[in-house]
Amino acid sequence: MRKAFIIICLSLGGFYLYSSGYMLIKAELSQFFIKKAWLKTLKDKHNHKPWSWADTYPILEFNVPRINKTSYVLQGQSGRNMAFSAVHLNSSGMPGESKSTVISGHNDSHFNYLKEVQNGDIIYIHDKNQSYSYIVTSINIVNSKQEKLNIRNVNELILTTCYPFDNLQFGSDLRYVIFADSISRKI
């Protein structure tokens, strides 16, 4: 009986170790393919899927130079897309438009570094034609059940992720929200 229990425990442990390793490899490979698709998009100005069965494609690249972090943003705000990268909120604007641009990502993967962003940081956003710069003006923690994002008719960037960071519990109502104002229309 004891031997069977040990075998079951080792088997379950091996399965969970394999599963988590698989997810990490999948996350890293997806970033490679998303970046490759983005580079093709920059070259020929056409949208490219990161893999043949994808129903999305990268539409933006943004980076925060102070902390040396870059993210690729996928079209379509589904949870499936967010599993691979940050996503653009469909009802929000695009950089350079007079409408808030909202980008969301998971705090345990693609947007984990948002906790390092500070007021005054510069964020560069690139679409397939132009580049834009934004300056972080505020960082707030809000309860998503009590307060909704306000999409305004102004050229601003809003980055969102779940809060707190490194939380082992799933499904928090708290959101970490970074607001950044446009510093120049085109750079």
Keywords:
alpha+beta, 187 residues, globular, 8-stranded mixed β-barrel, 8 strands, Sortase, Chain: A
Description:
It is a single chain. A hairpin with a 4-residue loop joins strand 5 and strand 6. The chain has 187 residues and is an alpha+beta fold. It has two helices and eight strands. The chain has helices at 2-44, 79-82, and strands at 58-64, 69-74, 86-88, 101-104, 122-126, 131-143, 156-162, 174-184. It has an eight-stranded mixed beta barrel. The protein is globular, with a radius of gyration of 19 Å. The model has no long low-confidence stretch (mean pLDDT 88). 25% of the residues lie in helices and 30% in strands. It has a single domain, classed as Sortase, Chain: A (Beta Barrel). The longest helix has 43 residues, at 2-44.
Short description:
This protein has 187 residues and is of the alpha+beta class.
Output the CATH homologous superfamily: Sortase
Number of strands: 8
Query: Please, how many helices?
Result: 2
Weakly predicted, low-confidence segments? none
Category by helix and strand content: alpha+beta
Q: Largest sheet, described in full? A: 8 strands, mixed, barrel
User: Mean pLDDT, nearest integer?
Assistant: 88
Q: H/E order of the elements?
A: HEEHEEEEEE
Strand content: 25-35%
Q: Biggest sheet: strands side by side, in what order?
A: 1-2-3-4-7-8-6-5
For this structure, the CATH topology is Sortase, Chain: A
CA radius of gyration is 19 Å
Tell me the helix content: 25-40%
